[in-house]
Amino acid sequence: MARPTLRTTCSNIETAFTRLFPISRSLTAHDLQSLSHPTIHCMRTLTLITSTIATLSLTAEGQDKEKSKDQRGIEKIELSAQGNPPGTMKFAKSEIKIKAGKTIQLTFKNPDVLQHNLLIIKPGTTAKVGALADAMLTDPEAMKKSYIPKSPDILHSTKLVNPGGQAVLKFTITEAGNYPIICTFPGHWRLMSAVLKVIK
After folding, report:
1. Does residue 35 surpass a pLDDT of 50?
2. Which pLDDT score, from 0 to 100, does residue 8 have?
3. Domain boundaries, the chain
4. Which of 103, 106, 155, 105 is nearest to 126 (CA)?
5. pLDDT tens per residue across span 110-167
6. Apex CA 60: angle with CA 20 and CA 33, to 5°?
7. Which stretch of 46-50, 80-84, 142-146, 184-188 has the lowest confidence by average pLDDT?
8. Fold of 81-199
9. What would the DSSP string read from start to end of 60-75?
10. Is the distance from CB of 119 to CB of 136 less than 8 angstroms?
11. Are 14 and 50 in contact, with CB atoms under 8 Å apart?
12. DSSP-assigned states of every residue in 48-112
């Protein structure tokens, strides 16, 4: 049986490599391709493999950096309704602290037996927004609106969350201050409140 030549061996390696990594095919159009010397042909094959590996490494590195950037840029926090004893109408925490300008992903969980929502409102507007929520008792569309009244004082809000459910809010607050967190399901806001402390 005839032994494969150096050129044949390199050609086989190049063919197998381009099948595994289609991205490398764009690199084969090289000036050395027209040269027939087997040693140069092998050099071209090694160049092809090295270039492709470098390209793949840079792509992976870029993806890792982007992923790390996303993880650094978003602060994930949780707030739950108090579920024990059931029907307490309180948040599990009375205060949450975040930094101004930070992107926040807040997950609101409801382990209670009642429906709840979560509103973040402007400082000093709890009674005003609460009164608007109470007035929705006469609105036949109130449930569809998740008992969220129309008000410029409401900055961020979730829909009504059923028992055992959760909702996610993503937001950024740039101004420091104490921002009330309330539930505006009828009658809840007087008891179910917390404070989002935004600090510089």
Report:
1. no
2. 61
3. 6-71, 81-199
4. 155
5. 999 999 999 999 999 999 999 999 999 999 999 999 999 999 999 999 999 999 999 9
6. 45
7. 46-50
8. Immunoglobulin-like (2.60.40)
9. HHHHHHHHHHHHHHEE
10. no
11. no
12. HHHHHHHHHHHHHHHHHHHHHHHHHHEEEEEEEB--SSTT---BS-SEEEEETT-EEEEEEE--S
Residue type, 151: S
From 70, 95, 92, select the one nearest 166 (Cα to Cα).
Answer: 92
Instruction: From 167, 155, 159, select the one nearest 198 (Cα to Cα).
Output: 155
Q: What length is written for the chain?
A: 200
Residue among 150, 148, 188 at smallest CA distance from 169: 148
Region 82-103: mean pLDDT is 96
Nearest-angstrom CA–CA distance, 186 and 123: 21
- Placement of tokens 């140069």 in the chain: 40
CB-based contact 119:156 (threshold 8 Å): yes
Antiparallel, parallel or unpaired: β 193-199 and 103-109: unpaired
Q: In DSSP terms, which residues pair with 91 in a beta bridge?
A: 81
Is beta strand 74-80 parallel, antiparallel or unpaired with respect to 103-109? parallel
**Among 192, 185, 195, 194, which Cα is nearest to 133's?**
185
